[in-house]
Amino acid sequence: MGTYGVIHSCGHKEIHQLFGKIADRERKIEWMESVPCLECKRIADEEARDEHNRESAIANHATGLPQLEGTEKQIAWAETIRKEAIAKIDQRWKAFADRVEIIIANPSTLAQAQQQAVDDGYADIDEFAHYLAKAIEKIKGEPSARWWIDNREELSLKKGSIIDKMCMAQKKADAESTPEAVAAKDESTMRPDRPVTKTVAEIKLSEKTVEIFFPEKRDDFWRIIKKELGYTWDRRWVKQITATSGTVEDRAAEAGNHLLRAGFIVRCFNSDVRAMMIDASFEPEHGKWVTALVNGDYTGYLALSWRMIDGDFYADAKRLPGAKYIRPYVIVRPEHFEEVLDFAEINGFLLSPGAIKLIDQAKVEHAAALVVYPAKPAKPQRLLQPEKQVLDLEQTGKVDADLLDN
After folding, report:
1. Percentage of residues in the chain with pLDDT exceeding 90?
2. Which of 68, 77, 235, 248 could form a disulfide with 145 if both were Cys (CB 3.0 to 4.6 A apart)?
3. How far is CA 199 from the centre of its chain?
4. Which residues contact 362 (CB under 8 A, 6 or more apart)?
């Protein structure tokens, strides 16, 4: 190892520590003398990058693209990202158009392409091309520098890219803006007297779920849907319907009723459920349950659960014989069914079909057990110690040898 003062091509001297053979160090010094120092290289790179960004901005403005919005550094970087991305998109769009012409000319390839378009959610290849062109046009008009930076890795024509998602979003928007769609929405939308927002909460029902689409972040909405009704977020608010949830219609109607009373606009395309939302004719969800665990380390245990809005039953539940807290349940072995049934009756807990089956089985086992009345064992008899033979001193005048201290 050696320390060397090297004068770089920019004229600045820097101290370097070099390792290895002398000949290798000399070659390294010769190379360093031919390049600028690190600081000058950094400045030169920044100047080159700034110049490239300026050239990109000039080229973008020359093609009629809008002025970008953002910080100075964001705009500088986004100009280059936009120029390079649009160049690639235009190139791929031209290649796609050329390929479509070839596909159309061949009946067999046309049939395959049409089927692929249908599989992707379009009526045919012409509709796909229509929405692809609209998405590209929309992207070119995007003025946010941050948007270009955030999506720089997804600006392609591949399936799943930002452009593909924009195509489907535009197709959905067009489908929902037809006169028929607008009329159906108006018919299915319920507005309270004084709405707290113009955003509509759309409630959809499926066989085992209720989904709520609400594209606005509000604390009052979150408190109702998350804290009170127990929905979870998965790109929309979702509630899974289980054996203890009631019907999907009741849960959808309950959610809509809560939201309407809180001042939210609600849309639901099920007329029967809309009526239930308005007149509150649904069965409220019961939140306090005794269920049966069917998997995991505690399979076959009774599980007690409740919602926070129903009260706090933890202390009382933990007093049950052998009770354990295994989040989110307090669990009890089924042989303590009498205590569990008493607890459920006192506190208003319902039993699931699985819990009823488990308790019935425990009752059968309890009734089938042999009842015995064991006898009390007799007390052991006291054993008498043999008496030692002690001679009368008056008779012998001597003490027996066994009684003497040695």
Report:
1. 41
2. 68
3. 24
4. 334, 335, 337
